[in-house]
Amino acid sequence: MANVSVAAEWQLLYNRYYRKPEIYQMRWKHVDLSRNKVACASFGGPIAVIRDDSKIVQLYAESALRKLRIFNSAGVLLSETVWKHPGGRLIGISWSDDQTLICIVQDGTIYRYNIHAELIQPNVTMGKECFEQNVVECVFWGNGVVCLTEGGQLFCISDFKTMKPYKLADVPGLTEDDMLQPTCLAVREPQYTMSGNVEVLVAVGDEIFVVDEDEAQSIRFDEPSVEDSEMGNDDYGNNLIGTVQKMIVSPNGKFLTLFTHDGRVVVVGMESKQIAIDYSCESALPPQQMAWCGMDSVLLYWDEDLMMVGPLGDPVHYFYDEPVILIPECDGVRILSNTSLEFLQRVPDSTESIFKIGSTSPAALLYDALDHFDRRSAKADENLRLIRSSLSEAVESCIDAAGHEFDVTRQRALLRAASYGQAFSSNFQRDRVQETCRTLRVLNAVRDPNIGIPLSIQQYKLLTPVVLISRLINAHSHLLALRISEYLAMNKEVVIMHWACAKITASPSTPDAHLLEILLDKLQLCRGISYAAVATHADNCGRRKLAAMLVEHEPRSTKQVPLLLSIGEEDTALVKATESGDTDLVYLVIFHIWQKRPPLEFFAMIQGRVLARDLFVAYARCHKQKFLEDFFLSTGQIHEVAFLLWKESWDMGKNPMASKGSPLHGPRIKLIEKASNLFAQTKEHTFESKAAEEHAKLLRIQHELEASTKQAIFVDSSINDTIRTCIVLRNNRAAAKVKSEFKVSDKRWYWLKTFALATIKDWEGLEKFSKEKRPPTGFRPFVEACIDADEKAEALKYIPKLSDLVERGEAYARIGKAKEAADAAAQANDGGELLERFRKTFSQNAIFDTLKMPFQGAS
Amino acid sequence: MAQIPNLENAPLNLKSIREKSQRELVNLLKDIRGTKCLVIDPKLSGSVSLIIQTSTLKILEQEKVHNLVTVKEFPLYMVPLDEDVISFELDLSEKDCLVDGDVSSLWHVAKAIHELEFSFGVIPKVRAKGKGSVRVADILNRMQVEEPVNTNDVGRPEIDTLILLDREVDMVTPMCTQLTYEGLLNEFLHISNGAVEVDSSVMGSQQEGKKMKVPLNSSDKLFKETRDLNFEVVVQVLRQKATTMKEDYTEINSTQTVSELKDFVKKLNSLPEMTRHIHLAQHLTTFTSKQSFLSQLDMEQTLVEAESYDICFEYIEEMIHKQEPLTKVLRLLVLFSVTNSGLPKKQFDYIRTELLHSYGFEHVAALNNLEKAGLLKKQEFKSNWQTVKRTLKLIVEDTDTSRPDDIAYVYSGYAPLSIRLVQQAIHSGWRPIEDILKLLPGPHLETKRSGFPSSPSVDSLHGASNGVADGRRSVVLVVFIGGVTFAEISALRFLASKEGMAYDLIIATTKILNGSTLIETFMEKAG
User: Fold this and answer.
1) 3-state DSSP call for residue A58?
2) Any coiled-coil ranges, and where (chain B) (predicted)?
3) Under 8 Å between Cβ of B348 and B314
């Protein structure tokens, strides 16, 4: 049976099966891992290879210059560059999470490369101490690094994005004693520590210290596990662990693997301090490499011997006749040799249940049934009957197992088995098969040796499709990234945007118009893409003209306008901002030009643009009055200048310094007169000119009045108020003078005077005034003034003199003389209507009073 | 009673808008780390209080103690004032546009409508009249290009038609005194953010001199019933209700069954509402019964009917001589100028001189502003108000305010021009009245828009079943750029409630205004 051959490749570690399929035959030639420093990125990332300058190696037919070469996981060369950096030997080299290659040399300088072997500027240094003391060892994690100096100090960068080095606490003894060197280092990543800061484990002598920024604490693993204490082995602790030769932290940060001086592999819990594995190796020679295989077992590698230790049972040995490098992944270890790349992982439960020799699990039977079905054997039906009750579980297992396969034929076989089973199962979520198919198509595509990203399904899920796509575009596999985005219905914007920028960078000699055409062709694929962002990139690449052409296509004005300004297209920016209707944008452009250009040029620019001009004027009116005057002068709007001056005169009046007798009055009046003259220059503003002239005259008179009456109550009141004040002060001559100065009409004069006299209750004076001559207003002002002052008796003197009968009736009504009102109304022509209205007025209040009665208590 | 209006019965899900604003404000505050102290400008606190109950803010308040002053932009584009009214809270919009040419408010209006579209779908039909409105329609289209509303996300558009109207198109209506209950309350007591502030003695409280806030929105059932009625009718309605209640009250002494008692207690629940409105109505009549109020109405009527300008001019002249409040004078003067398309040169200069002499030269700025806005100007050509009035039947004789059959009841005989235009726009679009539209300021526009279409067949299928199934009428959004009066809102509500009306109306505005508040925006002090 086919099943047998699958399981035959598995190894059993106690009760767990492991498998180690070959994923790639390496495409590279003449690469000998043992001669090189090698950095392999996790999640099937790229491999950086550079000749190891700490080893003496024989040069074959090659240049003496060292080359940094970057391959994909299948050994396809992606890029290379010559390494000729100063700063001493290369100490550490590793890929960061965002696939930047971090190289640290002896003097602490950090050189960074992208996947295209291009140096990322600027170079960073680990600091002065590292420069002086030399770096001897580096320990990396995904987003940071810890360096040990010859002087025994520790320095750390905990975020490669910010690249800020800082010093960690000194380990006791290490910095004082030159001879004392730590035997090994390990790092617990910030995400797994209590404090959220990185912790470095340093083994010195018999001790292990946990070091962070503030302190170095010795830790002891002296609590014996339960079994040990039962065995009476209670002297189990650091004394027995002794000097540690090598240590690594588990992928979840919870366990620590130690290789002790006497050749034991010990796994202890970081928090519990309990020992989970303790296995004595044949030799005390420390392994060259140690790695966790998922969370299930630990791998140790000596020359030609790779040993896998689990919690129980005998270890498994694999033998290699060439050097290998262990690349830990979340769910296993990739084993890279000169010729191949293998993936060592625990056999997933689903796969095991199907392919384990002699397995009779429902999934195995379903897989077998398909085989029978293909061979038209009736046994297929028999198998199905056997597993009827657990069919959906079997289908689920087949789907899951398919997901874990690297081999496409086996993927297909398993998926076919699943869909075969599904046909007989009623209660299964049908999209599970589709979903796995979709995922596998993506995985198979990126596993292609030319792309060379051998992700397992678990790694893919942890990495997320978004990151995978960003890695693809980072490696300039734009087409594949686009296809995957489309296939997974993700936003294509990221891909197209990156492509466009990369295209601009890569085509310095393509003419603008042609390049624009190429770019637009692709940019149009994605609605809502930011043309402005691409244009910014073009501008940064020194292609301002291309930038201007691109930004023309940006539909979002909020993005378009600022960019136009930054590339100096101020006119276009103003037009676009105005079109958008967003006044904030127009202001942005105005302020920009205002700052950059001399005033006259600025004025000329906005004068023709109505909205820009109006907005500028509105702003300047509040904040920059003097500047606004300049603007109006330069554009010939003299009357506007006049209005400004007039307004300024009031600001001056409000100034407390301008109180009585202050010399500020002089300039104030001058300002108003100047305004009057300016108004007079245009025919349309004769009214304003005259008004300003009068205003100046009024102010003068008011000053004189204040001086003569010694009362500061005149300035800034109106002409009417001035007259009224004079009458109230019983200064009739002054009142008459103001009246004649400003040609106050007789009508106004009568209203003014009657009310003023009523205010001071000069009823005698009022009567006298009424008899001076026949009032041009009739007697209405007198009646009104008296009623307003609630002097009914006085009012009665004048009401009979009202000539209009309706008016007379109304006046009677207002003072409550219902009978007289009715009489007057009866004499009037349309008396009926009037009477009705009176009736209403009198009754309305009564209505409400009766309405409120029942509720008085309740409200 | 809660001051924050209950939005349960709104034709559109306005609650979601309010909730979104609440969320945004709280998030904005949460974003600032540590303890904080929220300082609210008194001008804004009213609007903010319509969005968020203070209790929600209290939680934040407990964190008290200011730290560093952080200024953040709170994108408050709109505030639902009631079930069918949204305000964009742009107080100075009209003055900014007409006088200063600052059209920022137009962008904000467009933005707010676009925000609505994100919730309710792209509005397919647009009808606009006026410079600002046409510009808003234009900006709205640009926004749809820049940040498209995806039709697939929101489904069938809930708003069928957007009607945009510039205040400038109809300056007559706001200058007239509103005669609906809510309108009058606003004219005399000034409704702000859905409440009036009155002396507590007005409300029958014993404490003299204390101010109290009376909330006015549709959560108050009696107010909902009476707000849109002509005030005359309100008095009758109140009287009738009070009488019935009084009868019940006397009857209760003779009836003893529990169910009757229960009924009575139920009726008693509406007692506080009754007393509240009786108090308010009585307070209003102290204003409306004044002779000056009646003659003011007379004058307005005369101006609108374009009967005798001379009498009106003399009346205004006398108002100035009596030194009545300047806003009141200007309001009538603007009405005069607008219906007469300006004043003859001699009168224009004369009246301006009288104004400056009587009220002070600082008011030259206000006059200048009004002139720039075209509200108070020299007559250059003959007025076409007569034609507009006649063609659109703005004067309705024999208006029965208690049983109205036309919107004219809100101004006791004058049908607001703005609402007549809306009426036309809803029923037949602009085409039949193009000639009249040309006589009014600003261009007009009528377009059809579409979102990015999903497959059309699905759309139409959906539309057919959806519209009938959930029993909701399509919605027309009427936007007033530059403000709207309560009486106009009442008129629109009246339209919506009329038989044969196929739409629900939602009203949006830059600000609720009346003639006086509108005039006040033009009265920047020269000093």
Assistant:
1) coil
2) none
3) no
Tell me how far the alpha carbon of residue A503 is from its chain's centroid: 26
- On whether the CB atoms of residues A109 and A123 are closer than 8 A, the answer is yes
Residue A293 parent element (H or E): strand A289-293
User: How many Å lie between the alpha carbon of B391 and the closest alpha carbon of chain A?
Assistant: 31
How close B140 gets to chain A, by Cα (Å)? 10
Using CB atoms, pick whichever of A579, A813, A848 lies closest to residue B278.
Answer: A848
Q: Which of B93, B264, B355, B357 to mutate to test the interface with A (most CBs of A within 10 A)?
A: B357
In the stretch 39-98 of chain B, residues with CB closer than 8 A to chain A read 96
- HSE-CB for A15 with a 13 A CA cutoff: 2
ipTM of the complex: 0.78
Place of tokens 């002139």: B371
Cβ separation A583–B104 shorter than 8 A? yes
Interface membership of B287 toward A (CB under 8 Å): no
Does B281 touch chain A if contact means CB atoms closer than 8 Å? yes
Maximum Cα–Cα distance across chain A: 137
| B405–chain A Cβ distance below 8 A for any pair | no
Number of Cβ within 10 Å of residue A555's Cβ equals 18
Q: What is the pLDDT of residues B231-245, one digit of tens each?
A: 888 888 888 888 887
Residue of A nearest to B348 (CA): A687
Q: SS in 3 state form for B182-193? A: HHHHHHHHCCEC
Interface contact flag, B142 A584, Cβ < 8 Å: no
* CA–CA dist A326, A328 (Å, integer): 6
- Tell me whether residues B282 and A848 touch, CB distance under 8 A: yes
Give residue-wise pLDDT tens across range A100-134.
Answer: 999 999 999 999 999 999 999 888 898 888 888 89
Q: Tokens standing for B489?
A: 């809102």
Burial of A42 (0-12, 13-18, 19+ CB in 10 A): middle
In which residue are the tokens 């960019």 written? A563
Both tokens of B281, joined, read: 């109505």
Phi and psi for B479 in degrees, rounded to 5? -110, 125
- Residue-wise DSSP of A354-385: HHSTT---HHHHHHHHHHHHHTT-THHHHHHH
Strand A47-51 and strand B125-129: pairing?
unpaired
* Centroid of chain to Cα B272: 27
User: Which of A294, A293, A295, A256 has its CA nearest to residue A278?
Assistant: A256
CB contact under 8 Å between B322 and A721, yes or no, is no
Chain A interface includes B235 (CB < 8 A): yes
Comparing alpha-carbon positions, the chain B residue that sits nearest to A847 is B239
Contact A105, A88 (CB under 8 A): yes
Chain A, nearest residue to B452 by Cα: A527
Q: What distance in Å separates residue A814's CA from the closest CA in chain B? A: 8
Joined tokens for residue A293: 């295989």
Query: Tell me: the pLDDT tens digits for B291-308?
Result: 788 888 888 888 888 878
Q: Which residues contact A126 (CB under 8 A, 6 or more apart)?
A: A104, A108, A109, A110, A135, A147, A155, A157, A165
Which residue is closest to A842 within chain B, CA to CA? B289
Cβ–Cβ below 8 Å for B146 and A557: yes
- CB-based contact B203:B214 (threshold 8 Å): yes
Instruction: Tell me which residue in B145, B281, B527 faces A654 most closely, judged by beta carbons.
Output: B527
Q: Which of B218, B210, B175 is nearest to B487 (CA)?
A: B175
Q: What are phi and psi of A612, to 5 degrees?
A: -60, -45
Question: To 5 degrees, how large is the angle CA B290–CA B295–CA B297?
Answer: 100
B107 lies within 8 A of chain A by CB? yes
Residue A632 and residue A641: Cα distance in Å, rounded?
A: 6
CB of B365 within 8 Å of any CB in chain A? yes
- Return the exposure string of B267-289: e unless at least 16 CB atoms fall within 10 Å of the residue's CB, then b: beeeeebbbbbbbbbbbbbeebe
